Amino acid sequence: MPSPINKQTLEHLAKLARIELDTAEEERLLRDLAKILEHFEELKNLDTAHVAPMTGGTQLKNVFREDESRGNTNQKAGVEQFPETQDGFLKVPPVFE
After folding, report:
1. What is the mean pLDDT of residues 4-15?
2. Could you give phi then psi for residue 30, rounded to 5 degrees?
3. For residues 33 and 10, is the Cβ–Cβ distance under 8 A?
4. Residue 68, class by beta-carbon neighbours within 10 Å (0-12 exposed, 13-18 middle, 19+ buried)?
5. Boundaries of every domain in the chain
6. What is the Cα–Cα distance from 7 to 12, expressed in whole angstroms?
7. What's the CA gap between 2 and 92, in Å, rounded?
8. Which of 56, 74, 87, 97 is found 20 to 30 A from 20 (Cα to Cα)?
């Protein structure tokens, strides 16, 4: 069965990921990806009819506190010390121009 990932697809993915691949790296990645996809094809053929579904693989419980409203959050503290503010928000220089 031919691999669904060909050189053109790999080049497209590399472009999206903004990585440059030389010819040797492309060939190695194509071989590796083909092997990975072959493994998934093998897994598709396994009989899982009598395997109980997992719900996450762990018995750990959420350790976070419950959400609750708080009165004074001191949200505006320090705004007056910031160099520039606008409508109660901190004004910072633009990251992109």
Report:
1. 91
2. -60, -45
3. yes
4. exposed
5. 7-44
6. 9
7. 53
8. 97
